[in-house]
Write the structure tokens for this entry.
Amino acid sequence: MNETTGLTAVIPMKPLIDGKSRLASVFTDQQRGDLVIGMLTTVINAVKGAGVESFVIVGGDQRVARVGEDTGGRWVPDPGVDLNDTLKTVFAEILTSGQSALFLAGDLPFLKAADVYSLIRTSGNQKNIALAPAKKDGGTNGILVPPGVDFEPQMGQRSFAKHLSQAATAEKSVAIETSDGLGCDLDTTDDLNSYIYMEPGLLERLYSQAAIY
């Protein structure tokens, strides 16, 4: 098989009213919702552009579900009590079916198809675990787990270090992929200001993508 077959991408989401709460001081609820949808469509476009045909949006609300279904993906209600429980449940379903599972954060405004494809290739044609660290806070924005590999996402503070430690304990090889697209997740006003400097038309681009939905 080629690098992108036998793989399902997983993008977990919150209801839009709960998304990006740390930006509530600068955006209305509608603007925050549009921002989240714009980033979600950016991630979906990158996944599809990389040749990944199967992707699932987990959680969110009716607008999030519509985006997933209208773009050719599958939407399912959140089955977990928190992000780690959600990813554990969905990963288990995918891996049991014999496919690799690829987690991608839904708030990556610069993600491109080349970033997703590079993460997949870094895994050695889905033979090893591949991780994409966040540029700030020690987080993890991308995880690829091949079938037959015992590995559970441990999202939260210092998750990247936790993932490396888990793999080392299990004596599993880990590949690491870094890029602005994979590393830059948008959570705070500081992030927003930095990213607008990187791409002056960022908000206009994301809002125009969101307007479709």
